Amino acid sequence: MFFMYRKYLINTALIALSCMAASAYACEGVNEYPDWTAKDWEGGEANHANAGDQMVYEGSLYQANWYTNSVPGSDYSWTLVASCNDTSSSSSSSSSSSSSSSSSSSSSSSSSSSSSSSSSSSSSSSSSSSSSSSSSSSGGGESTISIQENARGFCDVDGSVDSNNSGYTGSGFANTSNASGNGIYWAISGDAGTYTLSWRYANGASANRSAIVNTNGTSVSTADFASTGSWTSWSSSSVTVNLAAGYKDLSLVANQASGLANIDSLQISGPNVAAAQCGGPSSSSSSSSSTSSSSSSSSSSSSSSSSSSSSSSSSSGSGTSSSGFPSLSELKAFPTAEGYGRYAAGGRGGRVVHVTNLNDSGPGSFRAALDETGPRTIVFDISGVIELKSKLLITGTKGNGYVTVAGHTAPGKGVVLSGWTFGMIGGSDVVVRFIRTRVGTASGNTMDGMGMASAENSIFDHCSISWTIDEAFSSRSANDITLQRTLISEALNEAGHSKYGDGAQHGYCASIGGDTGSFHHNLLAHCSGRNWSLAGGLGKSPFVYVGKLDIRNNVVYNWRHRTTDGGAHEVNFVNNYYKPGPVTEMFYALNAQNDGFPGTQRYYFEGNIMEGRWDESNQSEGKKATGEPRDYDPWVDQPFFESYVTTQSAGDAYYNVLADVGANRPVLDDHDKRIIEEVRNGTFTYRGSKTGYPGLPDNEADVGGLEDYPVIRRGANWDSDGDGMPNEWELAHGLDPNNAADGNSTTFSNVGYTNLEMYLAELAGDFD
Length: 768
Known about the structure:
By secondary structure, this protein is mainly β. It folds into 4 domains: 2-83, Seminal Fluid Protein  PDC-109 (Domain B) (Ribbon), CATH 2.10.10.20; 135-275, Jelly Rolls (Sandwich); 345-703, 3 Solenoid (Pectate Lyase C-like); 727-764, no CATH class. The protein contains 6 helices and 47 strands. An 11-stranded parallel beta sheet has the order 19-20-23-26-29-32-35-38-41-44-47. Strand 1 (38-39) and strand 2 (46-48) form a beta hairpin.
């Protein structure tokens, strides 16, 4: 991930250099917001900007990074080019500017070796919330903040965020791989002046470990981390540096072969210091007063163009509320929910149910929490493996459901479901986030991983699915659903599928249907076929294809003989990135299968890429139609319906997805780190034990089986009133940790999110 971050810094530097001579005339003749530069179709109204278009807003010149209809400078779709009022490029800390990066920096996806620093037993962490970067001000503008891992201002680690040594605060500690040059990366803003940087750390080695302190690519100091005697003993080390005003990248990089000490947190004192958005200034994080417009970006009502068709409103408005949370533009399942399931209500306003053990069933189990009725939010007070003994399902007729599963509330490495299927049959308004499943062969049954059957108005976000015998994911008879930011990998290939028998290969990724179903920003890796299978189904009378599917900005890697095929009535297939791997045998992305029902399937295929084979300029090479009869053209040149997804080009989506996919809160597990690195590097680690195919396991044992997921239990003082919000977070935000009723209040939201939802959103990184 760091190479992407360095790429961003280089691009920013080039933009700055190119603008050194810019002056007020650079803005002359440039459209001023909201006088848009581009139309969705000839004759339509101008309603957006395309990639490369420039616009002026509040005295600054911005350039669009991709199709966008957001306020210039309000989000990552814009790059600040210059000030219209100065004689040089603007690189200030104005709260209305927003530097661009096509991929947001989130929890580390880089592969890491096991560090020698992990040597102690698992233990419950202390109760510091990992989701907030708290600050306290003293006189003269001097402020102090503390940045925890996976919180705003924490950008990356060349290694992993671990939780196997006790005594840490937050959700864990940053543990670099043991080598010189590996580091940890943060982002802050503030005025020019003297800053004190203090790291809380543990060094169980006998020798000191030193590191270089850098800001914006320049070395400013050296930090020394003396031995603390054990990996569970914590101390602090500080340096004092002089820093310029504005946005600042900070890094701590090992300058010796042992890597860094384990870093628990970074405390910074300085003039108006604040945690910043990784990759550039953010309109909601600058210490200066915000001057951006209070109007939020809204979705276009017209069909999106063939370039990238961004049609979703930004998750946040352009201001910050008095509570410190961003002002939001609409009430969705959570602020970053997109697609047709984005309005799922989940358990909003209902009770909180705590999962307190890893049992398959009984009081305190995940199954018992799902079996309850009425609106509810499920939080996890324990981490580890839940070994299922039967299917784990959210059931009910349409109109029932109303549950939020908040997997990211678990301590340690989170929870993993093993042995059986997890999903929903019937029900509506279900929100599932940060759940991983590793099904495997132990049950002896042919199992899917996750699914949404007869679901309505529901969304699965940031999940991870592996080691399935039937499809890893499936959806049938579903209305208004979304699957987003989910990592599907290593569907077991020759694993004894009950329908096809021994020797049959069925390493299939996903079979999807919906009306309308949104599938965006997912990663599909090491699955032989059905990447995706379009299961729109047939209407009863007449026999015509049904289903509306929007498939965009997904990344697919190392399929063998099938990519996307099947049939549905209307399909938007936009800006997906296909990367052939060592087992890949065929090189088109979409096969429209007519199957005797002419005129009932149509496809909009645009902006897709197959690395090394074809790109946006020759889309005809990426698609084909098969089946009889062939007397009609299934391809159209306009999308069928809005996507309600913030859409990047396929190339940008590749980096964006690899930076933020899977169950990465509280942390990515080793399995998903490996998968992401294999995709990034175009490699594989394991072969199938029966087929020998690279990257396609036949049994979970082929890839080493389940890794260790330490069992960590929250203490009774973590959440005294049981409202789902930790005591420390409540105190930091002025709430009463002994008043359960404040969880359903809407103290911090301008659109109706409850306080519990705002906590869960912050914990998920939705405001980063």
